[in-house]
């Protein structure tokens, strides 16, 4: 985003809400993305991959597990982490997803629920981007209802044997360690499954039309035997993986606004330069109406993200607050992307412009880590006191 467009799109002066450290974090990530990521993303998206050397470069910037303390993690604020997600997803949702699955799912699970030995063994390498992690919760028949998971872990002697399938797992095919959640006789437990463990394999999901610059995989556990030291000792019940999901959803509510910002600025730049009927199309009332509606929703979403970041830094977020942000900002971002595409016309469907790529990605972002329906029911429960999930 050019300085001129940045000035034009910050009507509410949201940049004034940031500390110097937060501005530095945002500018550092923006510069990295602008120089080393965005020029290549259309090809990465078309080819369906992210380069293997990207994770160590992100680790060198301190972006992997950046909001965690110790073990080589940067220990930054929730707001700074949100700003990083904003800039990463301004490039592509797949890039932000790789970072947030690494830092807010896999690393948070180990940091929060792992033993001291597990933390020391895995977290420094994950923070450096030397080891990629994934988070195996969703199953082919257990998405919005993870409590119905069928993956099981049975105790056999001093070991555990895992059997089951996990589906739609970001980073699965490139992960050096998988955090896998399974049902035991005492409830849901978490296990650390290193790549190469007998009985554990992955299969990348082909023919995706969304999140192409991201590895999405199935995890296959077939008599996968693990020692008890692979179990996350502090994780007890389904609340453990759900708490990790709330960490990742927080990054999404920031990241979605990054994708929306890119779509909006692409449409604004196009409207200011595209000539039709002897004038820029931005000079027509109907186009200005589209631009203003997109701009208002973008600024509102960013303001909500800033507020939730400050609340999280001050005292933490309740689940319904995270649901509020994820529900509003993903819906707004997708609407902005769709409206931006109409301004670009036929040009908007090519990879020469970022809008269709972001639109396709946001279709996934809208529904993963909690569909709009689930977040609606979370808020409905909050308002009425009556759970309506079943």
TrEMBL record:
Any Pfam family the entry gives: Acyl-CoA_dh_N
Domain Acyl-CoA dehydrogenase/oxidase C-terminal: 236-383
EC number: 1.3.8.6
Obligatory cofactor(s): FAD
Molecular function via GO: fatty-acyl-CoA binding; flavin adenine dinucleotide binding; glutaryl-CoA dehydrogenase activity
Pathway: Amino-acid metabolism; lysine degradation; Amino-acid metabolism; tryptophan metabolism
Keyword match Flavoprotein: yes
Domain Acyl-CoA dehydrogenase/oxidase N-terminal: 19-130
Keyword presence, Transit peptide: yes
UniProt enzyme class: oxidoreductase
InterPro entries in UniProt: Acyl-CoA_DH_CS, Acyl-CoA_Oxase/DH_mid-dom, Acyl-CoA_Oxase/DH_mid-dom_sf, AcylCo_DH-like_C, AcylCo_DH/oxidase_C, AcylCoA_DH/ox_N, AcylCoA_DH/ox_N_sf, AcylCoA_DH/oxidase_NM_dom_sf
UniProt domain Acyl-CoA oxidase/dehydrogenase middle: residue ranges: 134-224
Catalytic reaction list: glutaryl-CoA + oxidized [electron-transfer flavoprotein] + 2 H(+) = (2E)-butenoyl-CoA + reduced [electron-transfer flavoprotein] + CO2
Keyword annotations: FAD, Flavoprotein, Oxidoreductase, Transit peptide
One GO process term, biological-process aspect: fatty-acyl-CoA biosynthetic process
Similarity section: Belongs to the acyl-CoA dehydrogenase family.
PANTHER family: GLUTARYL-COA DEHYDROGENASE, MITOCHONDRIAL
Identification of the protein by name: glutaryl-CoA dehydrogenase (ETF)
């Amino acid at each position: 985003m050019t300085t001129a467009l940045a000035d034009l799109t910050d009507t509410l002066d949201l940049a004034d809400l940031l500390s110097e450290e937060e501005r530095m974090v945002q500018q550092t990530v923006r510069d990295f993305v602008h120089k080393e990521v965005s020029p290549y993303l259309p090809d990465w998206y078309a080819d369906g991959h992210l380069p293997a050397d990207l994770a160590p470069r992100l680790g060198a910037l301190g972006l992997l597990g950046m909001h965690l303390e110790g073990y080589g993690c940067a220990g930054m604020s929730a707001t700074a982490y949100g700003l990083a997600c904003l800039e990463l997803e301004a490039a592509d949702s797949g890039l932000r997803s790789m970072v947030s699955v690494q830092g807010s799912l896999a690393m948070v699970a180990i940091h929060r629920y792992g033993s001291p030995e597990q933390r020391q063994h895995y977290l420094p390498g994950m923070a450096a981007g030397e080891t990629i992690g994934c988070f195996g919760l969703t199953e082919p028949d257990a998405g919005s209802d993870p409590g119905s998971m069928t993956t099981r872990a049975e105790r056999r002697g001093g070991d555990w044997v895992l059997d089951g399938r996990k589906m739609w797992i970001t980073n699965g095919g490139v992960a050096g360690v998988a955090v896998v959640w399974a049902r035991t006789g005492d409830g849901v437990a978490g296990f650390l499954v290193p790549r190469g463990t007998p009985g554990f394999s992955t299969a990348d999901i082909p023919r995706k039309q969304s999140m192409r610059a991201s590895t999405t995989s199935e995890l296959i556990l077939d008599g996968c035997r693990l020692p008890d030291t692979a179990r996350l000792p502090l994780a007890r019940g389904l609340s453990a993986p759900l708490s990790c999901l709330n960490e990742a959803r927080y990054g999404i509510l920031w990241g979605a606004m990054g994708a929306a910002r890119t779509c909006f600025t692409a449409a604004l730049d196009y409207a200011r330069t595209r000539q039709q009927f002897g004038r820029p199309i931005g000079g027509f009332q109907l186009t200005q109406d589209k631009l203003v509606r997109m701009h208002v929703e973008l600024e509102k979403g960013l303001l909500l993200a800033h507020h939730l970041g400050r609340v999280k830094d001050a005292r933490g977020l309740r689940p319904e607050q995270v649901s509020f942000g994820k529900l509003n900002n993903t819906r707004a971002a997708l609407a902005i992307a769709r409206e931006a595409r109409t301004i670009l016309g036929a040009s908007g469907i090519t990879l020469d412009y970022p809008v269709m790529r972001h639109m396709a990605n946001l279709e996934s972002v809208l529904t993963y880590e909690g569909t709009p329906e689930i977040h609606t029911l979370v808020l409905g429960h909050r308002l009425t006191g009556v759970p309506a999930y079943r």
